[in-house]
Amino acid sequence: MQTRIANLARRPGLLLLLPVVVYLSAFFLIPFLWLLRVSLARNRGGTGYGEGKAFYEPGTWTLDNYLQFLTDKFFLNITLFTVELGLMVAVISTVVSYALAYQIWRAPAWLKGPLVLMVILPKFTNVIVLMFGLLVVFGSRGLLNSALINLGMIAEPVPMMFNLFSVLLGETILVMPYCVLIILAALMSIDRALLDAAGGLGATRFKAFIEVTLPLTLPAISVSMVLSFMWGAAAFAAPYLLGKPDLYTLAVEVDRQVNWRLNWAMGSAIAIILTGIIAACLFFYFRQSPAEERR
Q: CA dihedral in degrees (47, 67, 276, 124; nearest 10)?
C-alpha cells in the first residue's frame, strides 16, 4: 500500500485525475449502471405510492422491456421521430448559427461583443420561462399574430404553436448559442491574409467564401451538427411544452413511463436506448472525422 502511494506521489498527474474519476463515477457511471440494472428488471405493477415497495421487482432479470420496445410499433414510431427531429435540429441550427457567426465575424470590432451577448442571452434564462416566452410571442394571440392582424396582413391567427414548427423553433433557440460560439471560434482563427490573397487573385467575396472560408470551418460545422443532433434527439422541454403527443420524443416517453405509468423498468430501458442512439452518433463522428480535426 505504501508503495502504491509512493508511486502516485511520483506521478502527480494521476493525483490530479483522482477528483475527476471520483466525480464521474459518483454522478455518471454508478447512476448509469443502476439505470441499466433497473432496465433489466420486471415491472412490479400497482401504484407504488404508499405501498412501501420499489417501482420494479428487485432481483429479477429479463429482456422483456427491450423486446417490447423493439416489437411495439408505438415505441418504434417515437424512435423514428426522435432521430428525424435530431437531424432537422442539426441542419437548421447549424445553418442559422453559421449565418449568425459569419455576420458577427464580419462585424466591426466594437459590435462583436454586443452581438455575441445577444446570441448567448437566452442561455441566461430558465428553459421553462424561455418556452413560455415563445408562447407569448408566437401564440394564437401572441405578439406576432396580433401585429400581423393589426397590419391587415392576415385575417386570422396563423398556427405557429403546438406543431413541428414550434418544436424546431424551441430546440434551435436552445442549441444555437453553442453552435454560434463553435463556428465563430473557427472563423476567428482564419487568417484574413488568406482572404486578401484570394481577392488579389480575382476571387469574388462569394468565391472566396466557398474556396477558403467554408473549407476551413468544416470541422466546426461537423461539431455543430453532432452537438445539435444530440440536443435534438434528447429534446424534452420543447416537444413537451410546445408540441403535442404526436411530436413526443423518447425523452418525453421516459418521463411518461416513470412518472405517469410508474413503470420504472420500461422507462429505464428507453433511457438506455436513447443513450445508445446518442453514443452511436458520437462513435460515428469519431470514426469518420480525421484525428487532426478533433484536436
A: -30
Supply 34's cell numbers: 443502476
Per-residue pLDDT tens over the stretch 4-20:
655 655 666 667 778 88
261, 216 contact by CB (below 8 A):
no
Cell of 264: 420504472
Residue in 87, 259, 97, 82 with CA at minimum distance from that of residue 185: 97
CB atoms within 10 A of CB 256: 16
Whether 183 contacts 98, CB under 8 Å: yes
CATH 1.10.8.80 fits 76-248, yes or no: no
Under-50 pLDDT residues of the chain: 50
Domain ranges of the chain: 76-248
Predicted model pTM: 0.88
DSSP H or E segment with residue 57: strand 56-57
Q: Could you tell me the sign of the dihedral formed by the alpha carbons of 69, 72, 78, 84, in that order?
A: positive
Strands (E) in the chain, as ranges, are 42-43, 56-57
Altogether, the residues listed in the chain come to a count of 295
